[in-house]
Amino acid sequence: LTPPEIALHSLLHAGSLTIGTAESCTGGLVAARLTSISGSSKYVQGGIVAYSNQAKADLLGVSTEILQKLGAVSEECAIAMAEGARVALKADVAVSTTGIAGPTGATERKPIGLVYVAVATSRGTQGRELHLTGDRRAITEAAAETALEALLTTVRGELAERTET
Amino acid sequence: LTPPEIALHSLLHAGSLTIGTAESCTGGLVAARLTSISGSSKYVQGGIVAYSNQAKADLLGVSTEILQKLGAVSEECAIAMAEGARVALKADVAVSTTGIAGPTGATERKPIGLVYVAVATSRGTQGRELHLTGDRRAITEAAAETALEALLTTVRGELAERTET
Which value does ipTM take for this structure? Predict the structure, then answer.
């Protein structure tokens, strides 16, 4: 199986689309995997690791309403992070992650392993809820893998759309 | 030997100082290592992976003069990135990396493995030039390790300063 960052490189190395990331629970893993590929600077604009709520608000424009009423671990926050990253990084497509990697930080309604991933394009944003298992490392690595796969699926769709029109 | 991110956690878990990152060639590795520690959200504000020059200018405030005259791979750029990250992330201490991880991207005056690391505090910013060897992965991992060690040294100094005054 081809890792998604390599499949993305094959699709994007000519510079047809640019990408960016907004990461909370994965803490930079998604950006690190994307930029592990030589030549990725052609299409990776950059990423924002928004670990604190302040960074989510200041750098990604996540609203106080989302952060206070729904919390940073919510699909709405993931969607706002991805949309904010598109704007801040001037990227065509942006992916976000937010969740509870554990072992601390769980609440009654938000257990360890609850992660939201979202991908934003000019045509809209799709969020997804994940329930991951394992230790902190397993959860963050699975969240990064899922985020990269979601990014790849969306990039394929965007490129297909462009070919059709 | 204790990894620097664990030593940083021991020093900072009580929340006395906050930290942030601005990464180019390490692409998120420094932030990923800092946030691999449970409880790091107490002191990691976040990070900016500024892979493109546009991201370096827009998110970190690196001047056009630095980017055009000295280039993104320069000590001046590393210093501006660290200082920009402190402001953007509202962090007490910020570390930056910029360099040529290879295998492409080298020029006559800037060989593969040339990396600059800088650490900014309210009292000033220190830059350092590194000459690293190995493949892309070895260079980025060594750059991340050096950045984390530099951050740890600076944090120790800051905490000592605070104790003295």
Answer: 0.96
